[in-house]
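Morning F.,

Quick status update on the modeling queue. The single chain you submitted on Monday has been processed. Sequence for confirmation:
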Amino acid sequence: LAVQQCFPTAELQIEIVRETRVKARLTISEDHFVDLFFRKETGRVDYALIVNDRRMFGIDNLGGWHEHPLNDPESHKPCSELTPTEAIRRLREAYDAVKVEAS
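Structure tokens below.
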């Protein structure tokens, strides 16, 4: 539901890699997309906004919950655990900020 609300025109593709591993991609435009990943065995969760094949913003829990902020996507800024809905909304905010910068 959050995906439909935040990215209503995006095309969603879901790949079940295994019964316990899921990848999804929201294609927003030719060079803007959101990648989502979940792995049950490890509890690993990743959310990333990709622009021109580069991560511009992300949230994941590898080594504890943290975000990769827009101004420095290679850094790790600790954050609290987010629900999937909250994470999708943060990705939308990041996408909107990237669009404004590009204008």
